[in-house]
Amino acid sequence: MGIIKAIKLTYDYIKRDEEGNPAGAKRAVDHVDIDIESGEFVAVLGHNGSGKSTLAKHMNALLLPTEGTIFIENKDTSDEDNLWDVRRTAGMVFQNPDNQIIGTVVEEDVGFGPENIGVPTEEIWRRVEESLEAVGMTAYRYHSPNKLSGGQKQRVAIAGVMAMRPKCIVLDEPTAMLDPNGRKEVLRTVRELNRREHITVVLITHYMEEVIEADRVFVMDDGRIVMEGTPEEVFGRTEEMKSYRLDVPQVTELSWELKQDGLPLSDGILTIDKFVDEIMALYEG
Amino acid sequence: MIRDITIGQYYQTDSVLHRLDPRTKLMGTLVFIVSMFLADTWIGYALSAVYLAAVIRLSHVPVSFIVRGLKAVMILLLISVSFNLFLTNGEHEIVSFWIFHITWEGIQQALFMALRLIFLIMGSSLMTLTTTPNQLTDGLETGLGWMKKIHVPIHEISMMMSIALRFIPILVDETDKIMKAQMARGADFESGNLIERAKSLVPILVPLFISSFRRATDLAMAMEARCYHGGENRTRMKPLRYESRDRLAYLVMAIYLAAMIALRSVL
Amino acid sequence: MAIELKEVSYVYGAGTPMEVRALDHVSLTIPDGQFIGLIGHTGSGKSTLIQHLNGLIKATEGDILYNGRSIYEEGFSMKELRSKVGLVFQYPEHQLFETDVFADVCFGPKNLGLDKEEIRARAREALDIVGMDPSYDEASPFELSGGQKRRVAIAGVLAMKPEVLILDEPTAGLDPKGRDEILDQVALLHREQKITVVLVSHSMEDVAKYVDRIIVMNHGQAVFDGVPKEVFKQYKELEKIGLAAPQVTYIVHRLRERGFPISDDITTVEEARRAILEGIRNKR
Asked: C258: which DSSP letter?
């Protein structure tokens, strides 16, 4: 069993009428089975409203399943005794950089998590230093978060999670509100944490360029997992991706269209290098 | 204009004042406030001015930055000054019409009032300018920790304060943005009578309220995700410990307060 | 008739140590009927620039002419300017405040002092343009999906019948399909109603398909200004200022380097597809 394992995970949002009585439900996650290995970099793609954020919130026990079970490191999130263990194992980074920073100075914010779980003072300082170093924000430790760029704020948020020494980080659309530079910054940080510190990463996003380097991609639609595979496999099914309101990189789209025109190109070309090589082989050969 | 409010903001720099224990600074602010109500002579105000100037210097916060904070209370200042100026009775009358009398005593009273308000605001803004909200709440929580015994939720109160302070600049920016967006749709906040103006605020207040609510929900979730569960079993990254500089500060405060009391009773 | 900027500069916090020159002697003309992409990274001055165009920010130096008349002239009505130059802010859904969708869209025309019939007619028309049918009129704007809220907010500006429409990152936070829907609607509006559009974006890929002209901002200056294919040819310079040309530009350049016969004027996937097919067929 992997570090995150969901079995028939289902979640219904309950709509309530004015008196607070249940008045219908909307199924946001529908019988999802996933098994994520420790150290993996997994991306979950899906359009807005596909259920991907709801799924992410289950990994941190912010939401508990209506049906089915989700285990974080073999611990059932529905069991209240596991709550703090689950949250320490799987840290979470959210979309809006402003609404998740609690401290008014960068280093104090990073220390917030360890303070909550009762880490001794000297150990907090060590962790804060290491975490800031890991996300490359040491130079900003005495700054006010309000003066930072969006990408820097998200790196602080990641450091805040890292300071709790999680085994896994779940990032719920961490780049949706950032500009291209901020997006690259955050992604680079996440990838490094995955490679260097062997942190398991679950990245929720709707930007296709962010999942290219993932080990595995899940595509969600209408609360279900509809596609799964390596980025090449998933993007290779370009038409299917588009039917789920998603995009593919321009190079993938171009090679897919040329393939429809009869050129013998491989499936799911994700890099310019590979595309140019294959076109030149056709041209010269 | 709305960006000029400096009360409650933190000024990032390094100084003795920044390094003082927040409890010391809280006490210092209290002492200064008390001293302002003791001052009733020019010498008293001069001493406070020197004391305040020395503390500002120690804080490394630019004077212009502190002065900017006064703009927000300008109206309050003007009102109280004119009350004192026109409505103080005294022996040395200069001008008099209807119920208004300008007297030498009135002028002096008005000037004292103005100085008192200005000093109070500058003094207390120094506190927030040199203390991060987190330190401030730590100071309150530790300093007033005994109140927990009488079931005052002091941890929760200080956490709420610190979050409010952190979000003030964000909400100020947001108000600015919403105002501009409504102005782009032809909204007018400057003309009309009082009722019309109050009504014109609805398109700002509703979105602001909704956004604050959304932020609060987000923040609560983010705090929960980071294992926040109230003040119990919480450790501190920066536990409060008095240093020798704090002892020195208490000594200075005591001397200052004694001098102010002495001035009042002697002169 | 057009908007004309003459040596416009804007300085934040003049005289303090935090002085920032957000705009630095910008001169440009926005002629009627053009579809312009305004590109730059955060802090490049693009948001400051667009707020000058409808008078929300007053230039520290320089002049802005609307249809030949200075907007800073005595007696120039800012209110009228704001109805002619419609500005849709980033995340415009955050400005919604009315109890129902229709009333919210009426806010702009109501502020113009139009009569009731006209207000209603304009609101209906604006909602039609953004594809919100009458069944949503009485819904609370807060119960809509993110994409729908955004469209209602855009309708709120369209209902003022602007001659120039400026959109600041209208697709921020939307998924790819939502993004295409909004941009397609804007393009349609531009084609059918002949209004001038200024689209602010970080993304060259998004605007390449739609715009006639790209203005690139950096450090408060307009550093590139031209048709997309000319601007994209400067992709190396664009990278230096933290931007990138669409991926297809890089594909074309790499193919050219390797000796594949393809024009470097190509800016879209469709153009590239045709050119590559042609190149390979001619060889055979």
From this structure: T
pLDDT of A23 strictly over 80: no
The span from the CA of C67 to the CA of C75, in Å, is: 15
Which fold would CATH assign to domain A39-61+80-230? Rossmann fold (3.40.50)
Q: Are C222 and C216 in contact (CB under 8 A)?
A: yes
Residue B50's contacts (CB-CB under 8 Å, 6 or more residues apart) are none
Asked whether the beta carbons of B118 and B70 are under 8 A apart, the reply is yes
Tell me the C-alpha distance between C75 and C65, whole Å.
14
A39 — pLDDT class (breaks 50, 70, 90): very high
B13 vs A234, B21, C14, C127, CA distance in Å? 51, 16, 21, 51
Residues of chain A with C-beta less than 8 angstroms from the C-beta of C251: 250-251, 254, 272, 275-276
* pLDDT mean over B40-44: 86
Provide the terminal-to-terminal Cα distance of chain C, rounded to the nearest Å.
Answer: 52
Query: CB within 8 A of A65, min separation 6: which ones?
Result: A9, A10, A11, A29, A58, A77, A78
- Nearest-5° angle of CA C48, CA C50, CA C55? 90
C145 CA to chain A: closest CA distance, Å? 9
Whether the per-residue pLDDT at B3 is higher than 60: the answer is no
Interval A160-178 mean pLDDT:
95
Question: How much is the CA Rg of chain B, to the nearest whole Å?
Answer: 23
Over residues C164-210, the pLDDT tens digits come to 999 999 998 888 888 999 999 999 999 999 999 999 998 888 888 89
- The pLDDT tens digits for A244-271 are 989 889 999 999 999 999 999 998 899 9
Residue among B237, B238, B241 with most chain A CBs within 10 A, to mutate: B237
Q: What's the complex ipTM?
A: 0.90
Q: Which two tokens stand for residue A74?
A: 């073999």
**Cβ(C246)–Cβ(C234) under 8 Å?**
no
- Cα separation, A242 vs A237, whole angstroms: 9
Task: Check B185 against C54: CB less than 8 A apart.
Answer: no
Backbone angles phi, psi at C144, to 5 degrees: -80, 165
Whole-number average pLDDT of chain A: 93
| Token pair 């360029």: residue | A209
Contact B132 A108 (CB under 8 A): yes
DSSP-based helix, strand, coil % in chain C, nearest 5: 45, 20, 35
Task: Quote the pLDDT of residue B6.
Answer: 54
Strands, DSSP E only, in C15-108? 20-31, 35-39, 61-66, 69-70, 85-88
**Could you tell me which of A193, A200, A198 has the C-alpha nearest to residue A72?**
A200
Q: Decide if pLDDT at B5 tops 60.
A: no
Give me the residues of C, 13-42, that contact A with CB < 8 A. 41-42
Which helix (H) or strand (E) is C127 found in, with range?
helix C116-129
Closest Cα of chain C to A101: distance in Å?
Answer: 20
Please state the domain extents for chain A.
Answer: 39-61+80-230
* Confidence (pLDDT) at C248: 93
- Give the closest of A91, A100, A121 to B239, CB-based: A121
Q: What is the pTM of this model?
A: 0.85
**Residue A192 CB neighbours (<10 A):** 14
Q: How many CB atoms lie within 10 A of CB A75?
A: 16
Task: Determine contact, residues C9/C20, Cβ cutoff 8 Å.
Answer: no
Question: What mean pLDDT is predicted for residues B8-20?
Answer: 84
